[in-house]
Amino acid sequence: MGCFFHVAAMLGMVAAVAAAPPAALQQQAPPQLALQPSSHTCPPPVVPGATAASPRTCTFRNLYLWRGRAHYVAEGEPPDLSKLGLDFELGRPVTAPRVGPDSFLETVTSARFAELLHSGGAGAARPDRFPLVYFWRAYPVMPDRAGGATCDAASPLPRVSNYYHLLSESTTILSATLCEQFGHCNQYANRSAPRIVDVRPSAQFVCHRNERYPPYFQEALACFSGHPLRHINGSTLRDRLTLVDTAWMGLGPRCRGSVSGCYQAGGPRLPPTPGLMAAWRATLGQCFGFDPGAAAPLRPVRLLVVDRLYESGRSILNIDSVLRALRSRFSPQQVQLRMEYMEGLTIRQQAQLFSQATAVVHVHGATAGNYVFLPRGAVALHLAPVEHKWSPSFSVKLARDLAGVSDIEVHTWANPDASRLHVVQPVVAFTAARRPQLGALLANE
Ligand SMILES: *[C@@H]1O[C@H](CO)[C@@H](O)[C@H](O)[C@H]1NC(C)=O
Ligand SMILES: *[C@@H]1O[C@H](CO)[C@@H](O)[C@H](O)[C@H]1NC(C)=O
Question: From its phi and psi, is residue 78 left (phi > 0), alpha (psi between -120 and 50) or beta?
């Protein structure tokens, strides 16, 4: 990065020039802003199996947050940040071009930045200091399904988001990145150290800019950072010049779940290890108050049946028949039966219910996000009315990634009989209506 003394001296001069008040005002002269030059290091990936094409991470020093961007103050030739191999986006195919930091991270000369600050009214303001920030693209939150509604303080929650994908993919990968790339493993006790700043582009994602995250976002992120999730262009950070001492950036090579093209044999992304999954689960255990070492109870067996509200399209239509059948088949000494709705519960409340269950029966959907809370050796029964539409792969992959950690077992029951549908879903009706008659199929053979 050249000669630091020289750069620092120059930055001081530039700031002094930019901030110099007219002679008449000399006495009230505000303190001059001495800009710290930025720098970065991007160690080569040391993860076994990583290739030159694998996503990597970088550590930056002295970035300035201002007006929705992070500024990299460079003298001389600015580094080409798009060449660093950083990636921020989970839901993109492996083959698609990387989404780099370009949209929020900008290189500027100190002269230009001093000018920007001056014209923006922050010429000599002493910056706030954030010791440590991880820059993260939060899982998308949309105003509504059409994407047209506003997403401001007056509009009601919840927005369109996804509990399963946030909890069991996004935060899992966040945890793996912090642990493997930055040595910040299972640091619940130390969660006051890092802040998480959302860098999802704010032009399209107005809910992000307005920090209208569903409550479970903040609750899940609070396991990793003791500071609320903020957007880089949100009302808290946007107009406050902030110096970030250490900035961690990029997703590590680990990926998990059904994220589009997450990882394939020989591809640039890698699966998580049991150690990383265990560190994630241990953090959640401390955060939500369950013992990750506990085994599923057997005497009695505790059976949790999760039903959902009718409006969710995932309710069990014959829930009464199911509960009656279970009660007549098993005595309370054998099976303690509990039926619950997750809607309206905090993650902590859901974690309490799941961590005490031997087995859980649920319709395909967000409930799978709670598998991580199941005790060792527990069983999940995943009800999927139309197997190819309601893919069991979310459940199956999560069970696979928890092998050697909590060793849960997942079974999928599909009921494709259109005359005896047990859930209400437009897609089921649609599929049933278009199902060819068996006779017609046979006639075509
Ligand atoms: C930040 O949000 C404002 C609107 O509140 C918008 O005008 C501006 O372009 C955004 N800045 C960035 C860097 O996205
Ligand atoms: C807390 O986290 C920071 C950042 O990872 C690290 O430098 C520090 O050593 C951690 N402290 C403890 C007590 O683990």
Answer: beta
Q: For 4-55, what is each residue's pLDDT tens digit?
A: 334 444 444 444 434 444 444 444 434 447 899 999 999 887 788 888 888 8
**256 token code pair:** 């998990």
Pairing of strands 301-307, 359-363: parallel
Which bound ligand lies closest to the C-alpha atom of 233?
1
pTM of the complete model = 0.87
CA of 192 to the centre of ligand 2 (A): 9
* Alpha-carbon span 82 to 86, nearest angstrom: 8
What is the biggest distance separating any 2 CA atoms in the chain, rounded to whole angstroms? 98
If one counts every other C-beta atom within 10 angstroms of the C-beta of residue 145, the result is: 8
Ligand 1: which of 66, 200, 202 to mutate, most ligand atoms within 8 Å of CB?
202
The 8-class DSSP code of residue 165 comes to H
Determine if ligand 1 sits within 6 Å of the CB of residue 171.
no
Residue with tokens 């029951």: 413
Which amino acid is located at 69 in the chain?
R
